Amino acid sequence: MVSAHEYDEAVQRYIRDIEDDLRKVSMSIHDRPEVGWEEYHAHKVLTDFMDKQDGFKVTRHAYDLETAWSAVFTSSAAENAKQVPTIGFNSEMDALKGLGHACGHNLIAIAGCASAVATARALEEFSLPGRVILLGTPAEEGGGGKAIMLERDAYKGMDACLMLHPGGGQDGKHGAGVITSNCISGIKATFHGVSSHAGATPELAVNALDAAFVAYSAISALRQQLAPGTKVHGIITGSDEWSPNEPIVIPSKATMLYGLRTESSFTLADLIPRVLRCFEGAATATGCSLELEREHLYLELRQSGPLAKEFAAAAARCWHSDDGESYHVEMHAKTGASTDFGNVSYHVPALHPMFNLPEAGPKDQPHAASYAKTTALPSSHEATLRASTALALTALKVLTSKDLRDEMYKAWKEDLKAIDAEHAIERLHKVLPEKQGARGKSSDHDHEDGHFGCQH
Ligand SMILES: [Zn+2]
Ligand SMILES: [Zn+2]
């Protein structure tokens, strides 16, 4: 019987073996930031890296998505087994327009690689049966890459799915938090009017920008009546017709991109019709026609309690802060942000801790411009390796302990029942506008119905 200490020592060693290569991969992605669906460089360096790891079978451009990929490892001891315990990991890759890697997905990318490689090596060294699936998941910042991959069966057969995300700083200490996130629905509202000369013949125009203005105001007024924790935020984008130098043409088109957030999918279904009425009212008031489309739908994270305990225990065994204090995992943290990994957590028991970046200042949070600098620091790299070590040890426990798998499934089923997940999803699909066509080059996926997510 292998002791936890032997696994701890081995996993730390495997990650140290590849830490310099991981640093190069992380910085290469960091220095060439790419927005969602355009992560071509990240796709290349990550798949090249995984191709060099013993036993991993790499698929590039997976699931009909140009920048998605997978790397799958099956241990020698699992070759003739009927049922192979399987763990999933995720590597995000996309950056934010104009801000670079201000969400630290360069660190998430290598955390996925580090955890997957260390888990695979342990399976081989200790002759354990198991499978590791690492997914390269595009477009987390709004495109819903994981939601699409989920519909295309990328997460099929996993007993549990894990990933990491960097967070803020905690007094310079290493550590992590197990967060709940918000549920978000992206809505695109396009107003169509009639353009005309703003000075000579304004009476002939139907002003689409006015419609956007009225909708913006209506939503702003609605906010006072919204429950605490509800957020409605958006932008107005123009069309090519908008005069770049002078406002001489009354706009015939205006598009509003909105995010509607609540703490749960159940309450999101109540919010959506109230916001849609603001768009509809603005169209009526101005005489514009209105086109409504749903964009991404990210469900709130359902974190697995049993997996969180394993992660915290592994981190505490392996790591201490520089002052000797043990690695602290805050078990009930909260964020108003959202992730497409929430959809995965409705599908399979899941864990998504956010680890501290020791040198992040108080205002140095994901999506702040300063955060892109922090995600390149050596201390942030070290924080990623420590959290990845704990994540790989969590994975090993899932793969080697039927008791943990049973406990995890039981907790997950009870959790989904407690939030009435099935009914909540049904309600959401009733109130959401139609979606756009499926992303990807094959027509084989026309049957997709937006189950737990939608097409961008
Ligand atoms: Zn982000
Ligand atoms: Zn992020």
TrEMBL record:
Transmembrane regions listed in the UniProt entry: none
Pfam (any one): Peptidase_M20
Region Disordered, annotated ranges: 432-456
UniProt-listed CDD domains: M20_ACY1L2-like
Cross-referenced InterPro entries: Amidohydrolase, Bact_exopeptidase_dim_dom, Peptidase_M20, Peptidase_M20/M20A_hydrolases, Peptidase_M20_dimer, Xaa-Arg_dipeptidase
Signal peptide: none
SUPFAM superfamilies registered for this protein in UniProt: Bacterial exopeptidase dimerisation domain, Zn-dependent exopeptidases
Ranges for domain Peptidase M20 dimerisation: 185-274
Molecular-function GO terms, alphabetical: dipeptidase activity
Domain of life: Eukaryota
Family: Belongs to the peptidase M20A family.
Name of the protein in question: Peptidase M20 domain-containing protein 2
UniProt organism field: Rhodotorula taiwanensis
